[in-house]
TrEMBL record:
Pfam families given in the database record: Phosphorylase
CC per GO annotation: cytoplasm
Database matches in InterPro entries: Glycg_phsphrylas, Glyco_trans_35, Pyridoxal_P_attach_site
Similarity annotation: Belongs to the glycogen phosphorylase family.
SUPFAM superfamilies: UDP-Glycosyltransferase/glycogen phosphorylase
The protein's name: Alpha-1,4 glucan phosphorylase
Organism for this UniProt entry: Oceanobacillus halophilus
Protein keywords: Allosteric enzyme, Carbohydrate metabolism, Cytoplasm, Glycosyltransferase, Pyridoxal phosphate, Transferase
Catalysed conversion reaction: [(1->4)-alpha-D-glucosyl](n) + phosphate = [(1->4)-alpha-D-glucosyl](n-1) + alpha-D-glucose 1-phosphate
Segments forming a coiled coil: none
NCBIfam families for this protein: P_ylase
GO terms, biological process: glycogen catabolic process
């Protein structure tokens, strides 16, 4: 990796501006400089990209392909500079040219091609694969519109389209020559060939071209550049024009062209709730058919091995069930195009696919109407039917004890196709994303499948890339850490553990405290600039940032805020460390209750923030349009990380890891990866409260919880709920009645009231602990020290050795 100095870069930027824009630096805008710098980075990266591909080909190494409907990558300029080892030089060059680095980076639109945890995980995994020298690539969709932009208008969420490609995206390369054709609908005809084998011919299909756009994935200072390949849907060239000349059906063709482009038109904004829309099914098949065709073409071209050897050179990880049609698609190509027998094709397929489950919420499990698949993908439907038939037979004959369960196990059942069942039956590995989540899959949600295939099930606790989530977003903290323990932790994040030796060093703790305070000041400035609200940078920054969902219980958080406000109104002089509650959350556009909670948070904020009688002890900030870039601002400044899901519901969580790594203390339930955080840092360095997963599951199974009892016995709870019911926070007095009804008439399905008291008590512990700065900073540093365990490098090493069996190149 060549050393590039700031003065080199400065010169190159100046030269670029002249050649490309015909302008001098003095006249350049932030955007001009952004594009100039991005193209310089590309110039550096592209030879490495080429070399990496050459190397993989010449070594004939086994490759992993990560198939995902979502890649939530955010911005790339800063992370590419960082990974390429040019960030310092670039910052210096920009400042010398008279630009603010931050403003130049901000010219890049977030690539928001994902909803939340699942999509961001995919992005972190790509970073780790490249940084650890693994031959691993992503396949996804190049949505023309990413996740909607959120505006808050009169407290309500309003969604605007995210046309992120309005300006040219400098990181993508269109590779038209590698396009493939995807076929939908039509009729399937079966013929017998002379040798007795079956041939399938399609008639009247709708054909779509999938064009790949490649994005380089830059490894950390290692010359590796892997590929994220995103497919875009286009009409097949020529066909539209020919038809237009033939029949003059101009409008029909425009319409048809539009419907084709819609396939990669937008990202579905649902997170954890399944909606059976045909367009979504089309997107899924579009992704998997193009990716599988591409993988097989490349295998044939570069390995010169029979397809029976595919599992030795290729492994495909499917990110939740969304890409699970890849399984029948692989079977289709192996049998129909490559003329393999069923058994041989099945052997190959089941040794290539591995499936990750990200949720046990029943409303998130994908099942498609049989008729929809039959109509849209007739040949795929036949193959799923056959997989199902053979699977059911195997239970009937080999597992008599499960005969009665067949309707609950069958892939096709009561008119629906169950994608998780298809994925489990057809993969060699099924993994959960945190220890407790995998245990729940094995013992409850997928119990019978576990008894059928015990060896397939395994855990891979999630992780986050410490390069973006510490080194990049919190350079001051990274610097202090490196000053104390040296910089080996950057390559070996587990070495952060050496910080423990210093966790009682007073001078050092003060340094960490100072870094946190500087980060808080930066965030306070940003908040002031965005909202006009002044917050106290000495207050406790209590942060909950994640998608809005009932199970994540933002409602519990805001109930606590209302409680504090009520207390302060009664006793304004009460001695209390000032607190700032910071929220960021998007709700799925059709999720009514989630939107009501957003409205409630904003309404409470508008009352609390302007009430001078409480002497500025309480502020509530809802930052609109929460996304990766906003997370990067908030996380370094967090004191408290709210991870308060109803136990058993949050598969893992990854924001918990990001905030821990930045020195925030977790206030959370025993759910997802919070449990693993607690096991590492110990009870003294985390604030745990509330029902356990076992208790929650027990209530669901046997009843015994009555929300009304709490309403009638706990005055604090009654007061808050009555305030909601009586319109204390609403412009109209019916405002928020639905939240009230949901809790009292649907018996508080997420145990908000049940966990309310322990939550308050734990908050009191937090407030007291915060007063003792040194003890607090000792806890904070302890959290940072253990956070290396949650680097996605660790996670990827485990996937590579246990599931993928791939080697570093
Ligand atoms: C079909 C609708 C739909 C869309 C997205 C259903 C389910 C999803 C995802 C599985 C939701 C998701 O992002 N799950 C999150 O995955 C993270 C990464 O593993 C975990 O850390 C979170 O706990 C989990 O909620």
């Amino acid at each position: 990796m060549p050393q590039i100095t700031a003065s080199d870069l400065k010169e190159r930027i100046e030269k670029r501006l002249i050649i490309e824009n015909g302008m001098e630096v003095a006249n350049a805008t932030n955007k001009d400089v952004y594009y100039a710098l991005a193209s310089i980075v590309n110039e550096e990266i592209i030879p490495n990209w080429f070399n990496t591909n050459q190397k993989y080909a010449s070594k004939r190494s086994k490759q992993v392909y990560y198939l995902s409907m979502e890649f939530l990558i955010g911005r790339l300029l800063e992370s590419n500079l960082l990974n390429y080892g040019m960030l310092h030089a670039a910052k210096e060059a920009l400042e010398e040219l008279g630009f603010h680095t931050e403003n130049v980076f901000a010219e890049e639109r977030d690539a928001a091609l994902g909803n939340g945890g699942l999509g961001r995980l995919a992005a972190c995994f790509l970073d780790s694969l490249a940084s650890l020298y693994y031959p691993g690539h992503g396949f996804g969709i190049r949505y023309r519109y990413g996740l909607f932009e959120q505006r808050i208008i009169h407290g309500n969420q309003v969604e605007l389209p995210d046309y992120w490609l309005k300006n040219p995206y400098p990181w993508e390369t269109r590779n038209e020559e590698e396009s493939v054709v995807i076929q939908f609908q039509g009729k399937v005809h079966m013929f017998k060939r002379n040798d007795g084998s079956l041939e399938f011919k399609y008639e009247n299909t709708d054909k779509v071209m999938a064009v790949p756009y490649d994005i380089p994935v830059v490894g950390y200072k290692n010359n590796v550049v892997n590929t994220l390949r995103l497919w875009s849907a286009e009409p097949i060239p020529g066909t539209e024009n020919e038809r237009m000349e033939e029949n003059q059906a101009f409008y029909h063709d425009l319409d048809h062209q539009h419907s084709i482009e819609q396939i990669s038109g937008f990202l579905y904004p649902d997170d954890s709730s399944y909606e059976g829309k045909e367009l979504r099914l089309k997107q899924q098949y579009f992704l998997v058919s193009s990716s599988i065709q591409n993988i097989l073409k490349k295998f044939k071209k570069s390995y010169h091995l029979p397809l029976s050897k595919l599992p030795e050179k290729v492994v495909i990880q499917i990110n939740d069930t969304h890409p699970s049609l890849a399984i029948p698609e692989m079977m289709r190509i192996l049998m129909d195009d490559e003329r393999m027998e069923w058994d041989a094709a099945w052997k190959v397929t089941t040794n290539v696919f591995a499936y990750t489950n990200h949720t046990t919420l029943s409303e998130a499990l994908e099942t498609w109407p049989e008729e929809m698949i039959k109509d849209l993908l007739p040949r795929i439907y036949m193959i799923i039917e056959e997989i199902n038939e053979r699977f059911c037979q195997s239970i009937w004959f080999d597992h008599e004890e499960l005969r009665d369960e067949i309707p609950e196990l069958a892939i096709i059942s009561y008119g629906r196709v169950h994608m998780a069942r298809l994925a489990i039956v057809s993969s060699f590995s099924v993994n959960g994303v945190a220890r407790i989540h995998t245990e729940i899959l094995k013992k409850k949600e997928m119990k019978d499948f576990y008894s059928l295939f015990p060896n397939k099930f395994n855990n891979k606790t999630n992780g986050i890339t410490h390069r973006r989530w510490l080194l990049q977003v919190n350079p001051k903290l990274a610097e202090v850490v490196s000053d104390v323990i040296g910089s080996q932790w950057i390559k070996r994040p587990k070495q952060l553990i050496s910080l423990l030796k210093y966790s009682n060093d007073k001078a050092l703790l003060e340094q960490f405290d100072q870094v946190k305070h500087e980060n808080k000041k930066l965030l306070a400035n940003y908040i002031h600039q965005q909202t006009g609200i002044l917050i106290d940078d000495q207050s406790i920054f209590d942060v909950q940032i994640k998608r809005l969902h009932e199970y994540k219980r933002q409602l519990l958080n805001i109930f606590h805020v209302i409680y504090l406000y009520n207390e302060l109104k009664e006793n304004p002089n009460q001695d209390m460390t000032p607190r700032t509650f910071i929220f960021g959350a998007k709700a799925a556009p059709s999720y009514y209750l989630a939107k009501e909670v957003i409205k409630l948070i904003n309404t409470v904020a508008s009352i609390v923030n302007y009430d001078t009688s409480i002497q500025g002890k309480l502020k509530v900030i809802f930052l609109e349009n929460y996304n990766v870039s906003l997370a990067e601002r908030i996380i370094p400044a967090a004191d408290i990380s709210e991870q308060i899901s109803t136990a058993s519901k949050e598969a893992s969580g990854t924001g918990n890891m990001k905030m821990m790594m930045n020195g925030a203390l977790t206030l959370g339930t025993l759910d997802g990866a919070n449990i693993e955080i607690r096991d590492l840092v110990g009870d003294d360095n985390i604030f745990i409260f509330g029902l356990t997963a076992d208790e929650v599951l027990e209530y669901y199974q046997n009843g015994g919880y009555n929300a009304r009892d709490i309403y009638h016995t706990d005055d604090r709870v009654k007061r808050i709920l009555d305030q909601l019911n009586q319109g204390a926070f609403g412009v109209h007095d019916i405002e928020f009645k639905d939240i009230f009804y949901n809790i009292l008439y649907h018996n508080d399905p997420y145990f908000v009231l049940k966990d309310f008291e322990p939550y308050l008590e734990t908050h009191e512990l937090v407030e007291r602990a915060y007063r003792d700065r040194l003890t607090w900073m000792n806890m904070s540093v302890t959290n940072i020290a253990y956070s290396g365990k949650f680097s996605s490098d660790q996670t990827i090493r485990e996937y590579a050795s246990d599931i993928w069996k791939i080697k570093q190149v």
